[in-house]
Each structure stands twice: as structure tokens, then as C-alpha cells.
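Hi,

Apologies if this is the wrong queue. I'm a grad student, and the batch job for Transcriptional regulatory protein ZraR from Stieleria bergensis produced an output file that my downstream script rejects. I'm not sure whether the problem is my script or the file. Here is the sequence I used:
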Amino acid sequence: MTVSPIRILLVEDEDDFRETSARWMTRKGHHVLTAANGAEAQELLREHSCDVAVFDLNLPGMSGIELLQRVRQDKIDMEVIMLTGQGTIESAVTAMKLGACDFLTKPCSLGDLEHHCALARDRGKLRRENSQLKAIISRSRPTVEIVHQSEPMKQVVKMVQKVAPTDKPVLIQGESGTGKEVVARAIQQHGSLADKPFVTINCAALPEQLVESELFGHQKGSFTGATADKPGLFEIADGGTLFIDEIGELPPALQPKLLRVLEDGSMRRIGSHKEQVVNVRIIAATNRDLSKEVQAGRFREDLYYRINVLTLTLPPLRERHGDLDLLIDHFLPVPWHVDAAVRQALNQYSWPGNVRQLINVVQRATILSDGNDITMDDLPREIVDFADSGSGGTGSTGSGGDQRTRAGRSLRLDDVAKSHVLHVLESNKGNKAQTARVLGIHRRKLYRLLERFAQSDSPEQDSESQQEAIVD
Ligand SMILES: Nc1ncnc2c1ncn2[C@@H]1O[C@H](COP(=O)(O)OP(=O)(O)OP(=O)(O)O)[C@@H](O)[C@H]1O
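Support response: The file is valid. Your script probably expects a header line. Output copied below for reference.
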């Protein structure tokens, strides 16, 4: 077998062994430098770079171990093999702890020496490739940004900074779409595990059997369909972070298993008797009130206390005054912009789906808008209705008698408007473009009105909101 050329530094005080080895290796095509002691070796390393160095342990003056320490201090990037005589294995072990990659016991054949040098060179190459890949991955991993300026979110971000450096479990609570996963990623990125794996599982999205096999892995044949051994997410996340979303949905049968991992890191794959130990930081999220789940007997109390050490509660979007405009601008691509009425409507809305819903609304509006201006016509019905009904504050419904008076008036005005619009539509033979022109309104406005009229037959329809929509 031919080995591609290796750049070797051989440091050996026995002249015979050093010179014979160097000649043999050179004949095999390798580039060999030789030194009889540590000082000579250091001199050579100032001028040359090598893939592999072979240090005799018992060098005169500076020992092989000291030379290794200096090489490491000088951060010289090469693999080091220690050469030991019989009975000096302990020192060889010390050398390996200091970063030598291998050791060989003398006397050794030249073939062995070459083979070990080739292995060391390949290992070094892999190590360098690995750290390059890690650097590429961490550069391409987007930095999590928690867009915010509201007071409650400032408190959340402060907590993120406090809990990030610990390795304790974190529980994140909040309605769906409030940004629990964003916060979990921010905790990971600001902590000491930033360059370690961040693995996620959503307990609500998987059937019970699958949650178990995803989390803990399985042995081949442990259930129908287990055609091969499979590591679980705990093993994959070992050394890093596991984000367990919707932990409130974790099946009761799995809760003791999770508790064990949290207590001492031990776990077993499904169908295996082999105990494994993992070191994983758990960040869990829930949109349920877990204390209520405990009271209802659906969530183990001991597990609840284990994961509820550090808790962050995300406020719903409707309670984050000041965040909405910032989020709109963040998610609205250039060159789109929203007009003042839209901004007001978005600010008034209650956002049951929180930030996720806001992103959808913004994306949808950019698709529907005619130009780059997003208007009320580009917003979903429920938001327009909400704004029209004044539920957000301006024009909000008054109390008692006042409401009744306004409702009575609006109903009559609504009827008038409806019959007028329908009359114009009929006289234009159902042509909506023509009808809108005659009425002096935008075609989309006409569609909205017609939809409203269709609904007005429904007794629950809020007549006041219809009236305001017609006269606006
Ligand atoms: N403060 C924020 N800044 C920037 N983006 C955010 C913020 N909050 C949420 N998002 C974005 O909103 C979307 C939903 O967020 P995320 O998935 O973190 O919510 P969640 O609370 O985990 O939802 P669920 O409970 O449904 O899993 C994502 O696209 C996320 O990037």
C-alpha cells in the first residue's frame, strides 16, 4: 500500500534509529526532518511546518514530554506521536493526556512507524476539517433576534441573559405564537452551549409511541417498524440543549422517564437493557398552565418542580405596548409600507395567534396589495371587523342606553345603505366594477359591503359595526 507523502519531524537521540528511520521514510517518498534533541526540534519548527512529529520520550535535556508541552503552548498545529522504551507506558499515558495522539513502543518496525504516522496525519486532517465545518455552521446559524421594546419583553430579555449561562432546566410559558422557541434559542445562543447541538421536539405534534422513540431512541426489533437501531434525541443532543415544546402534552407514561434523565442523566433506548448517561440541558415550553395540569393529575408534580426551576413567562402580543410597530417594520419587506389606518387597525387587534399570526398577516398583505402600499383592503376580514367595531378603543361601544340608541340609528342607516347599494348593483345588471364606479367606492370596498350585507341576515351580526363600516 502506498501512503501519500507525510511531512514528518523525527526527534530521537539514538543516532542509528534516527538516521535509519529517516532514510527509509525518505525512500518511501515522505519529507523527513530530524533532530537529536528538543532545542534542535524547536529550531526546525520555527522554520518548517509538519503534519506529524515523533518525539522520543527520553531525550537528553528537554524531555519528550516537555517538548510536547512547548509545542502545545506555541499552538503548533501538528499531530504528535510519542516513542517510548519498555516500562515507560505511564509517561506515555501522561503524554497522551497532554495532547499526544498516539504512542509507539521501541523497538518498533519502520513499517509500523510509517503506518502510525499516516494514521496521525489523517486524524489531524479530520480534526481540522471538523473545526472548519463547525466554524462554517456557527457562522451560517442565524443569530436569534428577539424584536422588542415593550417593558414586559425587556424583563423577559433580562431573564434570558440571567438564565443562559447556567445549565439548569428552563420552563417557558406563553400563548401559542408568542415566541417561546425564539426565546429558547436565544437562551442557548447566549450560554456556554452556543456551539453545541440545539435539538427540538414538539410533543403535541407526535403520537405517544413516536414521542418515546424520538426522545429515547429504540433497539432494532423492539416494536413493529423498528427495523434498525435508532438513537433518540437525548443522545443526539448530548452535550447540548434539547428544547421540548408543548411539554404539557407529554404522555403520562413518559413523564417518569423524563424525570430520570433530569435527575441523573440516565436513560435507556426502547427495547434495550443498556443504561446510558447523557448530559443535556432541557428547555421546555408550554402554552398551558402546568400547575393546573398538576392539580388535574395530568402532569407529575415531581417533574413539574424539576422543570420549573427557572421560569419565563412570555406576555401575549396584545399586552406588549410598543412592540407591534417594531414587529411590523421588522417583518415587512422593503419596499412595502403600511398606511396609518392599517397601523392603527393592527395595533388595536387582539392577536390571538400572537407574533406568528402577525407574520402571516404581513406576508399575506404583501401578496394581496396592488402596489407597495398596504391598505385596509389587504387585511384579513377579522382584523378589519375588529377595527370597524372599535373593539380596540377608538369608537368603542358605549354603555347601556347609549348603545341602544346608537344601535337603533345604525340599523336604519344600514338598511338604507344596503338597499341603495343593491339597487345600484341591480340596475348595473350585477356588474360590480360598474356599480363601484357609480357608488364612488373602490371595487374591494364593494365586495366587503356585499359580504357584510350577506351576513346581516344573521341575528348575531353587530349592526353597529356594519353601520360604521358603511359610513367610513
Ligand atoms: N420577539 C420576536 N422577535 C422576532 N420574531 C419573533 C418574536 N416572537 C416570535 N417571533 C417569530 O414568530 C414565530 C412564532 O414564534 P415561536 O415559534 O417561537 O412561538 P411559540 O410560542 O414557540 O409558538 P408555539 O407555542 O405555537 O410553538 C416565529 O416565526 C418566530 O421567529
